[in-house]
Write a structure and sequence with these properties.
heterodimer, A: Rossmann fold, 2 domains, 6-stranded mixed β-sheet, 4-stranded antiparallel β-sheet, globular, B: mainly alpha, two-stranded antiparallel sheet, 2 strands, 78% helix
């Protein structure tokens, strides 16, 4: 039996006029890549943002239910959201480097995590850049603004930054949709490589990508979870009619 | 279209050359250095020193910017990052109303409120004798006048910062204030400089409200409680009376030329800073 990293119970999200997520119940296995799959606008991103409470930024959203990580409810108003967010690295659709140098983008994350001492920070910055396969390309320009990098490099920098907070979970929201094929493949392969140490949740609407990387799939449609299960079973032998239609490309 | 375009592009140059031509008489007789640095202003004796006006203008402008910039910055951050959305919807018309009030109304308000406040309360409280009409009064009135302009730009700047950048900063575990301080402010810096530069240019050229409260005494001010005189006020107060004296007329043109050059200088400086800080 696999271990569960995140357990979501009766999660509902209301916007001013509509309901974005309807009674979500699902489990995300530990040290696996879980793909949240579904057509655009079905609430995948909102589900992801609930997990690290970025929904707090949008006062118009009303969130109810439970998201349990290590038996603690993320949605508890008294939860330490700063610690909590540091336990999850975020990779967004387009890379958003902080308005600082390449070096400081990662050093900033380290400082927030509480790492002290310039020497230690500098060693760790190099280390995380290497982990994201970026070090060789940028080692001579660490003091340059991060915005000077190409989009693919920026996304790798964001990955390095996400890893630098030392998370247990990585949340990725269509992390390759803005990237060229080579950078995309790197991100996908990197996820495969590091999943033994992290629990990875990837949102995507691209079926091919889901087939390529998923160990576990949560399929969503119109704010509801339609089907969830191990990737092999989900793709080969789906239980629900809607899933079958979606996999055959017959949707909409 | 091309004609109108070239006309617009040509306009500053045209303005400059007309003013230069008109003030040439004075420049020829005295030379630039003496005009700018001489303290004595006695047109009837043929002495034209612009130093008191230049210093008066600089004091009033810088003081006004110093007062209004922090107010605008904090307000813009509060309204866009902390307050409810509804509040921003109320703020916008209020700011527009403030921006639309004629400057003479601000001047009257300054005479009725700020000047007595300084002469009766602030001055005595600090143990300084002042009649209220002063550099400080002008700076107060001016700062209130430019707040809506600077604030409007700053609000727009903070509104255009993408939500995802904030999410990125917060996802690293920063608090909201850390996010504002380390990420938003840095991202917004070129825009903030532009807003301040815009306010500076406006403040430097503002005539009516300043003229009404600054005191109009030709003397280099030694403290902010002293009365002063500004370049625009000099032109506005005297133009029309002096056409019979060619040198005096030329002196006012020179004041206008100075204003033009200084505002051009502000503009260039602003562009320099924006391009310098825009790299992030």
């Amino acid at each position: 039996m696999m271990e569960t990293a995140i357990k979501i119970n009766n999660l509902n999200v209301f916007a001013e006029k509509s309901q974005i997520l309807k009674n979500i119940n699902c489990e995300i296995p530990k040290n696996k890549i879980t793909v949240i799959l579904g057509p655009s606008g079905c609430g995948k991103t909102t589900l992801l943002k609930c997990m690290n409470r970025l929904t707090d930024l949008y006062p118009e959203l009303k969130v109810s239910g439970e998201i349990l990580i290590n038996d603690k409810n993320v949605l508890d108003p008294d939860a330490d959201i700063y610690k909590l967010r540091q336990s999850m690295g975020l990779l967004s659709q387009r890379p958003y480097p902080l308005p600082m140098t390449i070096y400081n983008n990662i050093a900033y994350a380290l400082k927030l995590r509480g790492v002290k001492g310039n020497r230690k920070i500098s060693l760790l910055v190099m280390d995380y850049l290497r982990q994201a396969n970026l070090y060789e390309e940028v080692r001579k320009r660490l003091k340059e603004p991060a915005s000077k990098l190409s989009i693919g490099q920026q996304q790798r920098l964001c990955l390095a930054r996400g890893l630098a907070v030392n998370p247990e979970i990585i949340l990725a929201d269509e992390p390759t949709s803005a990237l060229d094929p080579i950078s995309s493949r790197f991100i996908d392969e990197k996820f495969q490589e590091i999943k033994t140490n992290y629990t990875i949740v990837v949102v995507t609407h691209i079926l091919r990508q889901a087939r390529r990387i998923a160990d576990h799939v949560i399929f969503m449609y119109l704010g509801e979870v339609i089907e969830q299960g191990p990737a092999a079973q989900f793709f080969e032998n789906p239980r629900e009619e809607q899933t079958r239609l979606y996999l055959d490309g017959m949707f909409n | 279209m091309l004609i109108s375009l070239s006309l617009v592009a040509f306009l500053p140059f045209l303005l400059f050359s007309v003013l230069y031509f008109k003030s040439f008489l004075l420049l020829r007789d005295f030379g630039l250095g003496q005009l700018i640095f001489s303290h004595s202003w006695h047109p009837s004796r043929g002495e034209f020193g612009f130093y008191p006006f230049i210093i008066g203008s600089i004091w009033v402008t810088l003081l006004a910017i110093l007062i209004s910039t922090p107010i605008c910055l904090l307000t813009a951050i509060n309204v866009t990052q902390y307050a409810r959305k509804r509040f921003l919807r109320i703020m916008h018309p209020v700011i527009d109303i403030l921006a639309g009030i004629p400057s003479v109304v601000y001047g009257v308000w300054g005479i009725l409120v700020i000047v007595p406040f300084i002469s009766r309360y602030l001055g005595p409280w600090l143990g300084i004798k002042t009649m209220g009409y002063s550099i400080l009064a002008a700076a107060f009135v001016l700062s209130i006048m430019i707040i809506p302009f600077i604030l409007n730009i700053m609000i727009e700047i903070f509104k255009t910062i993408p939500m995802e950048l904030k999410e990125a900063a917060l996802s690293l575990g920063s608090t909201k204030w850390q996010m504002v301080k380390h990420v938003l402010l840095r991202k917004a810096l070129p825009g903030i400089i532009a807003a301040v530069g815009f306010g500076l240019a406006r403040a430097f050229g503002e005539t009516m409200a300043v003229l009404m409260v600054v005191g109009n005494v030709v003397k280099v001010p030694t403290s902010v409680f002293d009365p002063g005189y500004t370049l625009p006020a000099l032109i506005a107060n005297n133009y029309g009376e002096v056409l019979s004296i060619p040198q005096y007329d030329s002196a006012l043109m020179f004041a206008a030329l100075l204003l033009l050059v200084v505002s051009l200088f502000f503009n260039l400086l602003m562009h320099f800073f924006i391009s310098r800080y825009n790299k992030y």
